[in-house]
Amino acid sequence: MKRLYRIVLFLLILFPNSNQAQKVEPKNIVLLVNKFKNDIRGPYKDIRWFCTDGSIRAPKDPCPDDIGPGVQHARYKDEVVALGKANHIYLGQILAYTDQELFWDVENDHSRLKQYQIDKYLKSVDNGWINQKGQFYRGAIQAEDEEAWGIEFYKWLLAKDTVLKDEYFLVRQSLKDIPHNGDDNVAQKMRSESKVISDLYLPFMDLRVKIHSQPEEGDIQKVVRFKQANSSKLTADISKKLDELVATMKEFHKPVDISALPRMAPLTKGTDLGKKIESFASNSALMGSPKLLLEQASQLLFDIRSGLMEEKRPEARLQLLDVSLKLEEIVFKGSSDYQPETLKELLHKICYLGMAVTGSGYLEQWEWDQLASDLTNYETQERSLGELTEVLNRARAAVEWSAAMVKANYDGIVKEYVTFEPLAAGFVDDKIRGSVALHLGQSVGELGTLISTESQLANKVMDLQNQSTIRGLNPGYAFGELVVVGGSSDDIEVSSDKIYVFQRPPSDLKPVAGIATVAEGNMVSHVQLLARNLGIPNAALSDENLQNLQKYDGTRVFYAVSNKGNVILKPENQMTQEELTLFAKKERKEERIEVPIAQIRLDENKVLDMRNVDADDSGKLCGPKAANLGQLKKMFPEKVVEGLVIPFGIFRTHMDQNMTGQEGSYWQFLTKMFEEADRMSASGISEEEVENYQLRQLETLRDAIKKIPLQDSFVHQLEKGFKEVLGSELGTVPVFLRSDTNMEDLKDFTGAGLNLTIFNSVDKEKILAGIKDVWASPYTERSFKWRQKYLLNPENVFPSILVIPSVDVDYSGVLITKGISSGTDNDLTVAFSRGAGGAVDGQAAEQYLIKDEGGYTLLAPARERFYNSLPKTGGTEKKKATFQDRVLNEKNINEIRELANTIRERVPKETNSDYEGAYDVELGFQDNKLWLFQIRPFVENKKALGSTYLESITPKIDHAKRISLSKKL
Predict the structure, then answer these.
(1) Digit-coded pLDDT (tens) for 667-723
(2) Which of 291, 344, 355, 539 is at 20 to 30 A from 104, Cα to Cα?
(3) 189, 223, 427, 866 from 125: Cα distances, Å
(4) Model's pTM, two decimal places?
(5) Cβ atoms within 10 Å, residue 534
(6) Is 629 within 8 Å of 933 (Cβ atoms)?
(7) 401 by DSSP, 3-state: which?
(8) What start and end residues bound the annotated signal peptide (predicted)?
């Protein structure tokens, strides 16, 4: 009775409102995990027979013959079942206990399958994880039943063409973890065992790194010698684990019997792929030539993927995928044996490793098609340095896209697991290190080193290895404390005088001194545009680079990115006198700019038809979004929606009302705050204290504006505008409310993405509340801090609002009428994501350099699993994306090129502008029809681009220099 009481009490602590399946807090899942670790049954309650007729019987009462055979396995503890219902977290999954469709879990992005893989990884690196004691619970899981389930699961799954087409990568990865043919994942076991040993005995770390990053057969003797050299310091447990590791390494490095491959796929005998497998397996020359073996295995890997859809039999597909996994193992093991001696051989190896990662699913086939012309051209006698640099860029892209494929598929569920099990953070890295992408990265690093030497364009980033994976995104220099953020950046409170290295920067990044990111998002996201605008040095780097920088976290460093993209990062004590001089005094205040307010018209307090405003009204009646879109409506009437404009004057009229709980109006409260801040500064109070005072006051103002009473006359005008201009009653048509301030798109300051946009709002009350929220958004901490950093009069910010009907675009993005990566004014840069609003929010968008002379280069494919659609009922709906098809098609790209030419020619003329720079255009496609949503000047930081120091660290490169491909490495 007491035991039952304790169980009930524990469940009440974990699940206080179990009837509502309320989500369990991570801290309580931690308790649950620890409880299972110390339980001799782990997450399981008991063992039962599960009979064919649905009956459940005791362990010693097997299913009788007259009702058919049954399977025996454990049942989950009640807490495990409850956690699955509440959080969709499934611990210790038993496959024989699981419905196939529920396990594939389409509605939750295949979460249960991915959790099974993470669970298996955690068990390998943490001595059984939740089964630390339960792994000895005999009969809980029956291996033969799990394998039989796996076979039936894949027969069911692989019968679906759409699954193979849309989820090739995930299906193939799952085969490494779900039992179906008696094989274990020996590579993962080897990595896990070496990690466990290094965690127990730190001196083993160097060998662990070697085994994880460059596994070779010679490592076996290194481990043996390590054990001998450290025998007096090793515990019996560590000594035993080293022996187990050696045995695993011998198993891993055992030569693959390629002659056995046809026996793995008997159903394919006589088919095109079956013949290719037999031809490969019977080629006796392969085992004597690492080069030929890697080439032929990679080609066959590629061919299996290309021809898999033609094979319609699920069991034959399964056999082909198993052969594919074995071929990846051959390439993975054999890559270390193929040591190129010349540049030509290195390019050959990179080419075939690129085909191998495509065949293995880390690249989509259309993505490889975009890279192939550069990576397959290694037969010439010589190439120019410029041509080889482009080959390096494309090869580097293949590595980055491959790693991004793993992250895109697993990051979401890994982040959820990390909240209660930090060890899960290593899962994605383990997947990448266990793939052929690891060896592709190493070969690309060798090419990068060679080209850096030839061009003298070398990075100098601390003492990091493989620095060729680091590349500058926008120029600038900074000095401050280095902060390395290895995990999520969502809860990081950034400081404007620190330099941050992120896995992925937060989309609402506040001002920082400098940034470097593994997942750069895209070149035209709001974060990237702000960094470029303010001259904040910004670079991309690899996961490995980030991990190697961890030891410098907290160090004061100098950081610079040159105009050509080479990167310097070094400790303060290594700075030259020239570099110290850059920070000898504060930036002069004159370098800030002033928001022009002389022409602002606050007397216009009527809701305007967007057709009646144009570029000349920017900064007078409204902000540039509305003014420029009104201009575009005149120029491209069929490509721009109708719209309403709530001008500056309406905002100011409302701000002149008495502020609840304060003396005077909202506007007086604001002006008094700035006056008091000036008085505090003049009296010697620190800048930090003054800023904290301002932020507290702004919070009070922001909350008050969100509750500000809207004038009846304004609401009536809005209702009239909806009916007459947008063609529907207020409350019946979904609209965007876009903040549009007078501080945006100034000559030297973009202000991109600093203020609020309300997405797809329908309900009348939500729209009215949204207007107040948009008015309040310039007073958020982030918006205020960016303004304070760059503007002389940040108090003179006036928001107008652009109201436009929602367009549920298939894909949307940004066009910059300049080649950002190429630096040429005549090229175009484009970033597009599926759905609405993705590219500007920093998603991993599909990016192109569209070339002036014709053609284009894919800079990055989209790597976001979810995108926003805009239902007519309002709000946003998340939909799942797959990557097997590109976002933009050829017709779209041609239309974008034509649009850019028209914009360059007509906009300056029709706005009577002397502006000669590039434009930043937001647009989208719905059913292949182009819609324009915004145009603004593309602002770059002239100080950073023209800095004498940055010019001094930018080597002059002779791109025409000829290099023989027979050059020895």
Answers:
(1) 999 999 989 988 998 999 998 898 899 999 999 999 999 999 999 999 999 999 999
(2) 355
(3) 9, 19, 10, 30
(4) 0.83
(5) 21
(6) yes
(7) helix
(8) 1-21
